[in-house]
Amino acid sequence: MAATVKQHVQLALSLPPRLRTFLARYPPASILPAGADPETHKTLYQEESPNPFMPTKHPITGKWHNPKYSLRRQAELVKLAQENGVEELLPFTRKLNEEKLRKRVELGLRVKGTGVGEKVKGHKHERTLVAKMEKRREAMLAMPDLIREWKKVGKRNWTKFPK
């Protein structure tokens, strides 16, 4: 048991100072001592705001307060946690990888024309290209018959040839 405690202490000391400070201020319930109640083992920071990544509503005035950590600082903490393999110890935030993946799956790419059965508008020459090339291909296939007709009619009557 003493060896695992020493290992946990060594792991905590190996974390970057910013991440170590954050986890000291907002320790997750999973690293509390065995048998400890998460409600009674709250730090002063946690009593002030349980999740520092979410906005909080003042109980008396009803006004919303910004999160303790801005989105930029949240992203930096999440990156640090990912690099050190302790991302699951952080409280919920939009910047967590699993949350970003969930949102990407839910909303898709959100680029017009990439969905099933959708087409991108494009330029006019791009939209009409397929029809124009099909028309050109049909004209090329009909060309030998036209040449034969022209040879029958002759050069003099060529201008009278019906279109």
UniProtKB/TrEMBL annotation:
Boundaries of every Large ribosomal subunit protein mL59 domain copy: 17-152
GO cellular component: mitochondrial large ribosomal subunit
GO molecular function, one term: structural constituent of ribosome
InterPro entries, A to Z: Ribosomal_mL59, Ribosomal_mL59_dom
Regions crossing the membrane: none
Pfam families in the record: Mitoc_mL59
Superkingdom classification of source: Eukaryota
The protein's name: Large ribosomal subunit protein mL59 domain-containing protein
